[in-house]
Design brief:
single chain; six-stranded mixed β-sheet; globular
Length: 510
């Protein structure tokens, strides 16, 4: 299917989001749509998929004008979208989410047997056949939910498939599987719009790229005839500098020491330390327990074994407020449900964790709080209409920056980062990397989980690899590669009865 969007404009109240945007899509191509957070990418794709209606402009499908009044009309026209924010119904099962609104029936009743079989086949095609079709969607990890979203869209047999940050929560193995399926769809003539902030992915799988900036169309390029620097310049209107800002790691004394950490159902025998002025990365496949370590340390999951020592003192953390009081902070991977309070403002979210800093006799000093919020908005370059804007109305990347801002009001002793740059544009990522470097230079210890292996390698001093909830190795980041990390994450781990595992340190062969 050929798609042409001409003169598309859209405003929400007085705020112009898109202005006279042009976008074309050919059948059998993967077309990247890029721009900074708030550039209008998601809004443009929501118009194409019937979620929003344009204020001006037209959409042509195979040279015929189309009226995409709602999502049902778009699906009927052969257009499907995988949204950046997960849209599963958590109380329903995986298979009920996959077939929502198009359930197979027999004699007027839902055919659960057929639904289960077809769900298993769709999940297996994505390489996640281990996901139980009968499991509640809300019980899955973020990465598993993302794979279910992808399976749901692919099951529609669409001729136009829009993917908005589909790999944000996936590991390298799942990404490879997804890219293989995309190549097959492309070969069969499906047109794919690929929205992502991950430059490596764009240059790996896409044919063309269109760039938006501040709601306007900037330009279009053939992937083979452009490069990273040109794309970044189109996106931000300036040179971004070093992609991963360099720092000299001078770790101090051990700040956080963890021994034999275990939760109720996933991780066991986790032992590591992280020093002041050090970044410890955590890598592993989806479901390996990476996020579980951070949640257990922060008190969001119950610790059933092991010890946690901070600056020489043993910690007894049973809930997040204990962790915050001790000097720990967590940037969660799920900003929508665990990182932000929708319905509250940008400013209220940014100061929520340390509101007492701006209060006297339980009365908040609005001026003091406002100055702190303004500083955080400026420091993180959060695109908003001010501190009083509802955080739910921000783009996904700017919401992530507000999550990050929440902990910068009071620099933590230990910062736990779970996918800290998920859904953040290249400019925002660079800013977050610089802030990480500043915190490290000030003596904070950082434990970071990321599915982006280049990010893990670039930011970390050492990298802990997990496999099925257990340690598979500890690597020196300076002497390691993506291939080595993946090989370690994929290998089976043999454990002693004490659940202790000796560290293996990666070294380049002589």
């Amino acid at each position: 299917m050929q798609v042409a969007m001409r003169g598309i404009s859209k405003a929400f109240g007085p705020v112009k989001v898109l202005e006279n945007v042009e976008f074309t899509l050919r059948g059998g191509e993967i077309h990247a749509l890029m721009g900074e957070n708030g550039a209008g990418k998601s809004t443009l794709m929501k118009i194409l998929s019937g979620v929003h209606r344009a204020d001006a402009g037209e959409i042509l499908l195979d040279s015929r004008k189309a009226e995409l009044r709602d999502t049902a009309a778009a699906e009927a026209a052969g257009i499907a979208i995988i949204h950046q924010e997960l849209n599963l119904i958590p109380q329903l099962s995986v298979m009920e989410n996959l077939f929502l609104g198009r359930e197979p029936s027999r004699f007027g009743l839902i055919d659960y047997g057929r639904m289960r079989r077809e769900a298993k086949a769709q999940l297996a095609a994505l390489g996640v056949g281990g996901i139980d079709p009968d499991a509640e969607a809300g019980s899955l990890s973020i990465g598993q939910q993302q794979m279910v979203e992808i399976a749901k869209a692919l099951a529609l047999n669409a001729r136009v498939l829009i993917m908005d940050e589909p790999t944000a929560a996936l590991t390298e193995r799942e990404i490879d599987t997804l890219f293989g399926l995309m190549a097959q769809l492309k070969e069969s003539g499906v047109a794919i719009v690929y929205v992502s902030h991950r430059m490596e992915e764009i240059f790996r799988v896409c044919d063309r790229i269109s760039v938006l900036r501040d709601g306007c169309f900037v330009g279009e390029r053939e992937i083979a005839r452009t490069d990273f620097d040109e794309v970044v310049a189109m996106m931000v209107g300036r040179e971004i500098g070093d992609r991963y800002p360099k720092r000299e790691a001078v770790p101090g004394a051990v700040r956080l020491k963890v021994e034999n950490l275990a939760d109720e159902n996933m991780i066991s025998g986790i032992t590591f330390d992280v020093r002041a002025g050090e970044v410890l990365g955590i890598a592993g496949l989806m479901g390996s327990g990476r996020s579980d370590i951070l949640k257990t340390l922060f008190g969001a999951k119950r610790r059933i074994a092991g010890s946690v020592v901070l600056d020489g003192e043993s910690l007894d953390i049973s809930e997040p407020r204990d962790a915050i009081a001790a000097g720990l902070a967590l940037v969660t991977e799920d900003r929508k449900h665990a990182g932000l309070v929708f319905g509250m403002s940008v400013g209220a979210n940014a100061t929520l964790a340390h509101l007492g800093r701006y209060a006297r006799l339980d009365i908040v000093n609005a001026g003091k709080e406002g100055m702190a919020v303004a500083g955080l908005i400026d420091r993180l370059r959060i695109r908003s209409h001010g501190a009083f804007q509802d955080v739910s109305s921000l783009s996904g990347g700017n919401q992530q920056k507000v999550v990050f801002a929440k902990w910068l009001a009071c620099p933590p002793k230990v910062l736990l980062l779970d996918e800290p740059t998920r859904g953040v544009d290249v400019g925002g990522k660079a800013e977050i990397y610089r802030i990480v470097n500043q915190l490290v230079a000030a003596g904070s210890a950082i434990v970071m989980v990321s599915s982006e292996l280049p990010e893990v390698l670039a930011l970390s001093d050492r990298i802990l690899v997990l496999s099925e909830g257990r340690q598979a190795g500890l690597f020196d980041a300076a002497n390691c590669s993506q291939e080595m990390l993946m090989a370690s994450a994929a290998q089976p781990v043999v454990f002693s009865n004490s659940f202790l595992l000796d560290y293996q340190v990666c070294r380049k062969p002589a």
